[in-house]
TrEMBL record:
Pfam families: DDE_Tnp_IS1595 (PF12762), Zn_ribbon_IS1595 (PF12760). Coiled coil: none annotated. This is Transposase. It comes from the Bacteria.
Length: 319
């Protein structure tokens, strides 16, 4: 899990969308802002890793437009190289607007709406959102060692809502025939999710062992898939099927609240998510949930700081 805090962020001059538009109103200002955030005054060559304050600044038409030449490997570079902005013809101003809106809206924004807001095609907006969403992947850090709530949910349309020729028999409720299982763990206000093939005990226990420090408290409902958790953890099992939702002041309300937020976002904003891309959507909602204590401006900066991975269109649509 990646740890988000205000210490990770750059001091902002804005905490609202309208203020950001006023402050970063030109491509030049957006580029300088990104350079200060990522380089902190010392340009870093993405090709050889050289860090210098005095890399060559190349002028184009008598003006400096952000093109550098490394003093060591003599290769040209800009701040976009090595980030999700690399190879994109979209101005940074539009990228920044998309990132700010996407990271501050509690349930995200659809590609159709974003396309209208920043004046690009829907296909371009979808690709931009996919790139941003891809940077929200959590990093593996220390395991949870506090009381950890665990729960699983099924994402997919209800069978009775489908047209007759798309209905599949025996798929109501907890069925993996047409639904995808998402397993979630939440501790100290931080959540992480993982797509799993099923809800069998071996599957769920393996994820818990990978993510939770042995001997910690694990809180779950009464699902039989958690029957072996007590062997390595202090297991608090709460039998929801018996009408009990709190036991010794332990509950699973927080992780269930996250599922509610995720599903309302998928149904209300995105309407449908394929299993192929579902993990990225889960990471998106986890990012916003885990940074809920940050201001919108700090969350925007953090999104820029994590934008060091470039997702290509070929990788995105690869089946």
């Amino acid at each position: 899990m990646i740890t988000y805090s205000k210490s990770n962020t750059y001091n902002t001059e804005f905490n609202s969308l309208i203020k950001m538009i006023d402050v970063l109103d030109t491509e030049h200002k957006c580029r300088e802002y990104l350079e200060e955030l990522l380089w902190n005054g010392e340009p870093i060559c993405p090709h050889c890793g050289s860090v210098r304050e005095n890399h060559y600044k190349l002028k184009q038409g008598g003006k400096f437009k952000g093109m550098y030449k490394c003093k060591d490997c003599l290769t040209r570079f800009t701040i976009r190289i090595g980030t999700m902005f690399e190879g994109s013809p979209i101005p940074l101003k539009k990228w920044f607007l998309a990132i700010y809106i996407f990271s501050s809206h509690k349930k995200g924004i659809s590609s159709v709406q974003l396309a209208k807001d920043i004046e690009v095609t829907q296909k371009t907006a979808w690709f931009m959102l996919s790139r941003i969403r891809n940077t929200f992947q959590p990093e593996q850090a220390e395991k949870f060692d506090g009381a950890t709530q665990v729960d699983e949910t099924f994402v997919g349309g209800k069978n009775h809502n489908k047209v007759w020729n798309k209905k599949v028999e025996n798929t109501q409720g907890r069925s993996t025939k047409t639904k995808t299982v998402v397993f979630g763990l939440l501790s100290n206000g931080k959540v992480t999710t993982e797509i799993v093939p099923n809800t069998k005990g071996k599957t769920l226990t393996t994820v818990i062992k990978n993510m939770v420090k042995e001997g910690s408290i694990v809180v779950s409902d009464g699902w039989r898939g958690y029957s072996q958790v007590h062997k390595n953890y202090e297991h608090k099992s709460i039998p929801h099927n018996k009408g009990q939702y709190v036991k010794d002041n332990y509950h699973t309300n927080s992780i269930e609240g996250f599922w509610s937020l995720l599903k309302r976002g998928i149904l209300g904003i995105y309407h449908s998510v394929s299993p192929k891309h579902l993990q990225r959507y889960c990471d998106e909602f986890s990012f916003r949930y885990n940074t809920k204590e940050l201001t919108d401006g700090d969350r925007f900066n953090l999104a820029l700081l994590t934008a060091t991975e470039r997702l290509t269109y070929e990788e995105l649509i690869n089946k």
